[in-house]
Specification:
By secondary structure, this protein is α+β, with helices and mostly antiparallel strands. It contains 12 helices and 11 strands.
């Protein structure tokens, strides 16, 4: 270990010791679990317990929303780590203009959603998490995070970017990745148009209106590292990015990632994911339809191409063609699932 990294490690241990003075906790051992950015995680061992200390990258008002959400879910019987208050009873500690939260340490097996045997229990855990999150109301100075009612606007924004990028690509069509984009984008825009039309005709507005009992807190980054299988069931970790939305948001990301990993869409996988989830949190047919529509929208093509056109990262033509093909092959399946619900 070089001196610089050693000093950084020592500094982080010293920082944790200072922060822990705000709690009635005397540490026997402190180890750094995650660092390299403002978001840092420590494992704190005392004579009788283990804790997780986390330095947050959020502003205070955003942190209030997610930390209070975690407290609400825990008090409602949800499987999340307990937030340990400081000496004054506050859930968030200020130290040197930085924010810290202390949690109980959760022991368990890290679930890998790429592994089918892990995916099923993870979906059970996500369903329970969504279920107990209902009814959470942000209080005080918390800045609310919500995607409710925003899908039509987001769909339209992504579609418009496809057109802007098409113009950019046409000016540099001699470059292979721009050429591949030009060959792929028109069918993708057609899929986006179809999804937008279906969303406008769906029950989306009703499902996301104030007072709807289908509104939950979505995790937004549910997967390996954030789902732990314990003797008590699946615990959900790292709630920093929670937001109000329909459960479909988290399910769309999981289902799409599963299809990407398999490099194909198939009915058994899509329905299997939904069946596992609904074992603990049944969805209405209107919710399922909205999920199918969200799966239809070419999120994955957009997610790849923004790396090229927004982030300046070079892509291989084969990557663009593969994801475009994957987007197109899902259309008959999702159309079939939508027709089956009529």
């Amino acid at each position: 270990m070089d001196t610089g990294s050693f000093e950084m490690g020592k500094d982080l241990i010293s920082l944790a010791k200072e922060v822990l003075k705000n709690y009635n906790i005397v540490p026997d051992n402190i180890s750094v679990i995650q660092s390299g950015t403002i978001k840092t995680v420590w494992k704190i061992k005392t004579q009788n317990s283990l804790y997780c200390l986390k330095r947050l990258k959020q502003s205070y008002d955003k942190a209030l929303f997610s930390v209070n959400a975690q407290i609400y879910i825990k008090q409602s019987g949800g499987k999340v780590a307990a937030v340990i208050p400081d000496k004054s009873g506050a859930p968030i500690v200020f130290h040197n203009e930085q924010l810290f939260v202390l949690y109980e340490w959760i022991h368990g097996k890290d679930l890998d959603l790429n592994n089918r045997s892990d995916l099923i229990p993870a979906l059970h855990g996500l369903a329970e998490f969504h279920l107990v999150s209902r009814g959470y109301t942000a209080k005080g100075d918390a800045r609310v995070s919500s995607k409710l009612g925003k899908w039509p606007e987001q769909y339209n924004s992504m579609r418009n970017k496809f057109l802007v990028w098409k113009s950019e690509a046409a000016k540099k069509a001699s470059l292979s990745y721009h050429s591949s984009y030009l060959k792929s984008v028109d069918p993708i825009i057609e899929i986006a148009d179809k999804a937008m039309e279906l969303l406008n005709r769906s029950s989306y507005t009703q499902l996301t209106s104030p007072g709807s009992d289908r509104i939950v807190l979505c995790h937004q980054d549910f997967g390996k590292g954030n789902a732990l299988l314990t003797e008590k069931g699946v615990f959900v970790l790292d709630l920093d990015g929670v937001t109000y939305d329909l459960a479909a948001r988290d399910l769309r990301k999981i289902t799409g990632k599963d299809a990407e990993n398999r490099n194909r869409w198939d009915a058994d996988s899509v329905t299997g994911i939904l069946e596992a989830y609904e074992k603990f949190n049944p969805m209405s047919q209107q919710e399922r339809d909205v999920l199918y529509i969200d799966l239809l929208f070419p999120h994955w093509f957009y997610g790849l191409l923004k790396n090229l056109y927004l982030n300046g990262k070079t892509l291989k033509p084969g990557e663009i063609e593969r994801i475009a093909k994957l987007e197109q092959t899902k259309v008959p399946l999702l159309n079939s699932l939508l027709k089956r619900s009529k």
